[in-house]
Amino acid sequence: MTALRPVSRLLRELPRLSTRSFSACPQQRDWYVPTPLVHESVGGGWHTYDIYSRLLKERIICLNGPVHDGLSAAIVAQLLFLEGENPDKQINLYINSPGGSVTAGLAIYDTIQYIKSPVSTICVGQAASMGSLLLAAGVKGKRYALPNATIMIHQPSGGYTGQASDVAIHAHEILRVRERLNQIFVNHLTKPHTLEEIGKLMERDRFLPVEDAKEMGLIDEVLTTRKPVTEAPPPPPPTTAPDNGVM
Q1: What are the record keywords, sorted (predicted)?
Q2: Is 154 a catalytic residue?
Q3: Once rounded to an integer, what is the mean pLDDT over residues 128-136?
Q4: Domain boundaries, the chain
Q5: Is the pLDDT confidence value at 98 over 90?
């Protein structure tokens, strides 16, 4: 009978477990999504790329999912690589992120500002928290969002447990980070805002439809269709010297 107690306890727990909301789970399961492959004919043979490597050849970087150290390292490496290939050519950074680590996000932000290549940012889906800061960090005039994207801004959050003096140190640090992030937004918004105004806007989660984000100056344009590529005019015909009959 004693051996059956763990089983009976589990059976009593099943009703409670079955009604638990999936969204309430502290860590949702990361579903595996296969990376699509593309094939190209190269020199009479075939070359296979994963889709993100192929997009990288077109100077397109995709920032998808929460911002953490691993994703940050990959984005920074791609930015540096594309700058090395052509420092004067634009890089397009597509963002669909709920935010994440402040330090990992600031590593991407600093790299965008550091490299010579201009970085255009495009929000697809959402750019929340640190994602919204990276969206605003693109070169002014080339920060876009698709019409049904959602942008959310707020102040940083965190927690720490320990002795009182250490808690005070970490509390001071998160306040310093909040002021620094607010200043970054002030620097990148195309509409004038004071630090006090930004602080009030960031006080709670603030969801911005794309038109409101444009009015605020966080993005420059809402895109419904891709802009047509303007072709360069053909070169003028070569000029020939007049024939004066002299050999």
Answers
A1: Hydrolase, Protease, Serine protease
A2: yes
A3: 98
A4: 35-222
A5: yes
